[in-house]
Amino acid sequence: MKAFVVLAIFLLAPVSFAGTEGQTVQATMLDHNEYPCENCLFGISDYYFCFAAQDKILVGHEKIRTQMRKHAPAELMERGKSISIRYDDKFIWVPQVKGKDLKLTQDYSKKIFLQSDRCQAAIK
Known about the structure:
By secondary structure, this protein is of the alpha+beta class. It has one domain. Helices cover 21% and strands 39% of the residues. Strands 1-2-3-6-5-4 form a 6-stranded antiparallel β-barrel. The N and C termini lie far apart (53 Å).
């Protein structure tokens, strides 16, 4: 009987916690920039996004193969726009109009932001 209860908890745990990653907050898109891979068929472009979320500055990074994306992520987000995002210690999830959330890896290593001093100050 104990084995059945443990098995039931194990099987139900992923379902009960699915989609609860991170906390949801209202954020403002402060800046975004990219390292595009120009003239390359199978190259990777890097996109960086900076958000003001409550009292934190969050910087997210996404690597995309050039041929995999119809629109650059930067085209999907406007500076100054308020959006609802989720984040934890490693990732930022940004809801998209169609499809699943855009999952960004938090990355504070590149001085890439040109429009926001707050974003530049968050880089370590």
